[in-house]
Amino acid sequence: MKKIFLLLVTGFAITLASAQRNITPGKPEENGLSPERLTRIDQTLNEYVNKGYIPGAVAIIVRNGKIVYEKSFGYSDVENKTPLKNDNIFRIASQSKAITSLAVMMLWEEGKFSLDQPISDFIPEFKNPKVLATFNEKDSSYTTTPAKSEITIRQLITHSSGIDYAGIGSKEMKAIYAKAGVPSGIGNNDMVLGDKMKILGKLPLKHNPGEQWTYGLNNDVLGYFVEILSGMSFDEFLRQRIFKPLGMNDTYFYLPKEKHNRLVSLYEGKDGKLVKAAARVYDKVDPNYPNTEGKYFSGGAGLSSTVEDYAKFLQLFLNKGEYNGVRLLGRKTVELIMTNQLQAPITTRYGLGFGLETADNDYQSVYSLGTFSWGGAFNTHYWADPKEKLIGLIFTNIYNTPHWAIGDRYKTLVYQAIID
Q1: 176: nearest Cα among 217, 210, 123
Q2: CA angle 404, 410, 416 (to 5 degrees)
Q3: 115-230: which CATH topology?
Q4: 165-173: long-range contacts (C-beta < 8 A, 24 or more apart)?
Q5: Is 275 exposed, middle or buried, given 0-12, 13-18 or 19+ CB atoms closer than 10 A?
Q6: Which of 46, 250, 304, 418 is most buried (CB neighbours < 10 A)?
Q7: Homologous superfamily (CATH) for 5-99+236-415
Q8: Domain boundaries, the chain
């Protein structure tokens, strides 16, 4: 399915008067879902586990602010047959991006910057950016031309800055980043975010700012930007300003020791079998990075969390900026967050880490118009549907898998259970 992306989402049918402010347990039949039809989720996920497609999965459905389905399947550690539990902690990788963008927009509401302001006003190393012109594969040397404009904060949020990804980006940019020591952000524990972002600011862009959509290290830049504006480490900002107010008590860059045993093992698919990821992943990082004492706070890929914690984060947006008796954003800011920010000739729609169901792609999916979604590199998936007042998440942790489509299968199984 073609994905359409955005910065921030209009068209919420939900109102604060009718919204359930906090997610609490509820019965599916009282919230328009068929318990009988929901058993199809059980059948499918048990099949995925029994066939060795996935080590295990935790799935949750929230409707009208009620947790109407939450179950775990399979194992957190296959070799030891350790049963997976609903509160197990998963590496959520790129699901970190939406949380980073929330932090940025909270500071925007405080009047600390404008969206179209150059990032170089705050991080001077990004001044006078250059675009890659030629690249020599033999030694990763290159030539550049001056960029047509500065990178703006809006372009960082929408992945239209021209910054690429280390580890998973284009061949040329991966090599350039590797030579300069700029990491992907997953498990680069002994590095310091600000140091690497200053280096990144001096490296060439893949294209001129605002001309294309390129998934890249933009949210890592934004994490450092939050540190500059707030005077706090990015980790501490998220903890004090977002996680504690929302009650996201199991979301971390690096887990406290008492929660190490709740982190699921990371697996990869090899020759049709599940194998525990013992070797280094992406740009040669330790797959056990959440259980280390790291200090690199990657806004693009570094967080680990539970399905319930992330459901609270999504409910904040369905509630138009308020959750747990605390307002983190104003209603108009949420509307801006959910408005498409990218214009022709860019065909991708993106913003705040969310994909968006629009009139352009609605025929391809059961999602309602205005639904926002994304996922993480280790096979975690989520969406929130304002019209249906519905949140769905499914988390597993598997690397290099041919079974990424579990996210789409789960989506179908959730929507087919709606009977009201």
Answers
A1: 217
A2: 150
A3: Methane Monooxygenase Hydroxylase; Chain G, domain 1 (1.20.58)
A4: 165/215, 165/216, 165/217, 166/217, 166/283, 167/282, 167/283, 168/282, 168/377, 169/206, 169/214, 169/215, 169/216, 170/206, 171/137, 172/132, 172/135, 172/142, 172/206, 173/132, 173/206
A5: middle
A6: 304
A7: DD-peptidase/beta-lactamase superfamily (3.40.710.10)
A8: 5-99+236-415, 115-230
- Between CA 107 and CA 118 the distance in angstroms is 16
176-184 contact pairs (CB < 8 A, 24+): 176/132, 176/135, 176/140, 176/142, 176/203, 176/204, 177/203, 178/140, 178/283, 179/140, 182/217, 183/283, 183/285, 183/296, 184/217, 184/282, 184/283, 184/285, 184/298, 184/301
- pLDDT of res. 159: 95
Query: Locate tokens 């700029």: which residue?
Result: 182
Count CA within 13 A, CB hemisphere, residue 337. 29
Task: Please say if the pLDDT value at position 8 is more than 70.
Answer: no
Distance in angstroms (rounded) separating the CA atoms of residues 162 and 327: 33
Span 286-296, pLDDT tens digits: 889 999 999 99
pTM: 0.92
Q: Which is more confidently placed, 363 or 368?
A: 368
Q: Give the pLDDT of residue 199.
A: 98
Using a 10 angstrom Cβ sphere, with 0-12 exposed, 13-18 middle and 19 or more buried, the burial of residue 376 is: buried
Strand 380-385 vs strand 372-376: parallel, antiparallel, or unpaired?
antiparallel
pLDDT band for position 351 (cuts 50, 70, 90): low
